[in-house]
């Protein structure tokens, strides 16, 4: 194993990258920062701390709050843009409001899952994987 395969590409994680070939999402492309970027970690810590102790079960945050926190982190610290998202024949342009709808409305759970997946892919970006992509 090469050390570069273990070294996180912090620039990509923090600044973001386009992700395509998202499972079951056709030609949808998402531009996202990596899950766990510095803004994500700070926001997540703030939101978790704000969950009242009385709502916690054995110290754990209820699933609804976990989903709410994840959606906020993706919206405010992960998702930057999208391509190839349509409503019928009309292109859906990126906006925070539309992102909020797609990330929080249970009807669009597939989009939420796709965005989390994309953020995880970028969050796992390594120097070695980028070097391999540049050679190909």
Short description:
The chain is mostly helical and 136 residues long.
Q: Could you characterize what this model shows?
A:
By secondary structure, the protein is mainly α. It has one domain (11-121). Helices cover 49% and strands 12% of the residues. The chain is built from 6 helices and 5 strands. The strands form 2 sheets. The protein has a 3-stranded antiparallel sheet with strand order 1-2-3. Strands 4-5 form a two-stranded antiparallel ribbon. Strand 4 and strand 5 (90-91) form a beta hairpin. Helix 2 (38-49) runs antiparallel to helix 3 (63-78) and helix 3 (63-78) runs antiparallel to helix 4 (96-104). The protein is globular, with a radius of gyration of 16 Å. The two termini are 20 Å apart.
Order of helices and strands: HEEHHEEEHHH
Number of helix segments?
Answer: 6
The total of beta strands comes to: 5
Beta-strand portion reads 5-15%
Q: Biggest β-sheet, characterized?
A: 3 strands, antiparallel
Please state the oligomeric state of the protein chains shown: single chain
Average predicted local confidence, pLDDT: 89
Show the helix and strand layout.
Layout: H1 10-15, E1 17-19, E2 29-32, H2 38-49, H3 63-78, E3 79-83, E4 86-87, E5 90-91, H4 96-104, H5 109-123, H6 127-135
Antiparallel strand pairs: 1-2, 2-3, 4-5
Helix pairs in contact: 2-3, 3-4, 3-5
Essential attributes:
single chain; 136 residues; mainly alpha; 3-stranded antiparallel β-sheet; two-stranded antiparallel ribbon; 6 helices; 49% helix
